[in-house]
Amino acid sequence: MSSRRKLRKSGRNLRDATKDLTAALAILVPTGMAYAQTPAPPPATQGTPAATEGAAPAEASVLSDMVVNASAIPSIASEAVGGGGFAKPLLETPRAVSLINEDTLNLLGINAIEDIVRAVPGTYTTTRYGLQGGINVRGIPADVYWRGMKRITAQGHYRTDLSSLSSMEIVKGAAPPIYGLGRIGGYVDQTPRSGGKAKNGTYLSDLNGFVQGVTGSFEKLEATTGVGGPVDIAGKQGGFYTYGLVENSGTYVRQVNVRQRLLQSALSLNNVGMFRVESGVQIQNSQTSGGYMNRVTQSLIDNGTYVRGSPLVNLDAGAGVNKDGAGDGFVGQREQHANSPVNGNVSAANRPLDQRFTWPKCSGTGAAPGADPKFAGPGGWCLPGHFPVQAGIPDSLNAYLIANPNKDPTGALRAAAALGKGVTPASGSLPLGFFLDPTTTGFAEVDYRRNGSYERLQNANVGLAWFDLVYDTNPDFTMKIQTFSDNLDTYKDSYLPYGEKQGIHRFEEKFTVTRRLPEKWLPGWVDVNTLSSISYRRTGGYIRSSSGDFDYRQDVLRGDPQYGDGQHYPNTKFANQLNDPSWLTGAPAEAERRSVYDEFGAGFMFDINIFKNTNLTLGGRWDGSTARDIEYAHNNQQAPSLANSCALPASGGNALTSAYIAGSTTLVPELQSGRCDYGPAWDDGKTWSISLSHQLPFGIRPYFTIADASVILDASNNIVQNTIVTAPGGHIGRSKLSEAGIKGNWFRGKLFASVAMYRQLRSDVSNPSDPTAGADSSATKTRGLEMQIDANPTRKLHVGFYAVGQHQKYVFNTNSQLQLTGRQLGFQDILAADGSVLYPAEAFVYGGRVQLVLPADLGQLYLDRVGEPRYQAGVNIDYKLPAGFGVHVDGQRFSAFYLDRTKTVELPMSFTMNTGFTYDHNRLHLKLSGFNVLDKRYFRAGTGDTNVNLVSVMPGTAIQFQAKLDY
């Protein structure tokens, strides 16, 4: 892009952002002025909230970033967290817990969920088409809570924004019993900026606020504003806080832009009967795109060598009734069958651009020709990366080249046909849509800022609301009634051609009571605090989608005068149910599903102090749940299977061939499956935990925790699939946690350290198969060791360090459908006369998608769960210089790790360093940040570990400037 075009685009972005910010201020400022005219209330009459379950304490700062601290980041050892169920100092919490307070969020520039890894051990974020909406804790997708209430899963559907929070608490391992059904790896509890409170917990006496602008590399442009102050409603005094954000930015990947708006408003009000009201709403619209670097090979990772080539056959030939061949700019479902017909009947394993291959044997009965027995694994199956090479080219490609010799000008490919047929899929013939054009293939140096696997638009509307009634006047007896609603409505329009319309909604009601037993009831050496909770949670989901992620057709280096460099063009753009749901030219929806599940639970906990220095925390919970899944699958290019729960329509009785599908001008009756109703099904589960800790001399506090927790077996989109609803073991699973650790606090809080050793696993699955494999709580076993140190040697210096090493394995040998490259399948390069590669082995299949099932007995060699580094380490250093200046440096080192389960592609070790320079003077705060300042190339894997062809390329050096003005 020329400098002039960049300037014009930046100008448009600035104008758009200015309009959005002006609109936000138009809402915020009059409200703030009205509140500012009310008399300043006295300090809150109901006191500081006492120890209640899970949520951060109410005295957490909401405007503390307006205060310049004497130290860079104050010690967090004494700050209260709820990771053990009761809110108590971090030092006394018998779990591995990390707290990111507002000071840390601001200083480290932690704005999105993927930034957490810079400060918290055991966290890592994989990508879902480049979007990082969720977070893994101890290698498992983690739950996210909002003030102690469980949110729906982000799924990578929208950009996360953390700048609206006052703190985040990251708890490792299963949640305490009071939280209900969750996941086994851990959870993140987010605390928003509460209603108009100052750092000491009292309400603000005057209107306070800020405006902030951020600009930087990759056309970063963001504006935020916030205002808070006192409020008096019908004689009830309290406070409010409203926060707004608008962003219109580019990203490291040139095609992917970010546009989002977020508005958060919170209100606290005292003396509403016997309660204090804490309420608020947050709404967000996020518009972005997704993309992976495609055609990944080890050579691409190590040397930047990319396999070139565009698809051989134009599938966009026009699917109108007149068959005029004009094309409409998208490939429809009928066009796939017309121009890339399959051999035999259409099925799940035999589609125009989706073929199943058989895993070859290297020894024993049925050994493949040319196989080397020394590469045979259990059962005689060939080890991944050592499939026998099959010379020649497929018959379908040879026939095409004979009819179109201009596509093989040297004749080398046709000559190779005499050597063999290459690798043959289970259907017996590889369709024409799989092959790349020989006249365009080769190798070239990649441009890492492009992507070939492109999702054009991901639009998400996210809204949540909370309303709490809190009674905590007496710290020995508290009550909290919480009501929470979370909603996600999103659609994804992709060229790949996956298209999706989705709505996920959750409602939760929880009543919690804490009661400290009177001293007269107990011996003098015992102190007991109790907590009991009952809750109801309902989660409903709807999804309508198209299938088929043909991620490898697009050549990211292809230049086109009409469509632009690296852009998709008609032969790589597919119709889906969003952009063209018609049967004649497009692709009707292939799957439609509705799911709902209810959770009812009651739990209790005891916090027992014995002789002051020993603490025993224990608790239990029971949860019951009903789940139902209704499916309306259709047009998915395979005949529906008969099931007792399905009402199948009348079939035409025709053979499902490509010719039949391509020639039909009306919906094919053989592909319609009607309605399938699964459930409602009932299941229940029990949860318990026990923690013991003891304060030793010299500031040392060892602890031990064991827990057995129930797990809801929903998918990543919070939908309980039919295989889960009908599973023999039910839709509630179990997990176990064992954790031992030592925490220490020395030099009056200037030095805090913790070490934890842990083991966690799904405990409700066993050989030979897992009927709950579709659940997001994977059947894995994890062992690890982590440590964290925070030191404040002086009032101006803070040093933090963390390290973690963990190993994850699947609990049992499970079948996995893997996506491999043509070279891994056994195709052979076609060479020119001079010995150079004329047609790379990968080019035989990059036009479509191939899948193999990993044999169960061979799978015992590949039980390691890969996709993220086994070892992580990080360091943070902050120093306050004279005259209001400050400096920050942080760095993270990740070990090398494999991209896919078969360990055929390894992503290298990486070290990234970030810097920041701050200036604070009265109400003005400036910050200049540098990210990945050493410009190191590094990668992240996508979700799952079955695809070797896709990877996210992480940004190079980026500079960001931030200016903030308080008022």
What share of residues is helical?
under 10%
**What is the makeup of the main sheet?**
22 strands, antiparallel, barrel
Shape: globular
Taken as a percent bin, the fraction of beta residues is 35-45%
Question: Average pLDDT value?
Answer: 85
Helix count? 10
Question: Which segments are poorly predicted (pLDDT under 50) over 5 or more consecutive residues?
Answer: 1-71, 319-326
Distance between the termini: 39 Å
Quickly give the structural class: mainly beta
List how many beta strands DSSP finds.
45
Radius of gyration: 29 Å
What does the model show?
The strands form 9 sheets. The protein has a 22-stranded antiparallel beta barrel. Residues 1-71 and 319-326 have low confidence and may be disordered. Helices cover 9% and strands 41% of the residues. The chain is globular and about 95 Å long. The protein has 967 residues and is mostly beta strands. It starts with a helix and ends with a strand.
Features:
967 residues; 22-stranded antiparallel beta barrel; single chain; mainly beta; 10 helices; 5-stranded mixed beta sheet
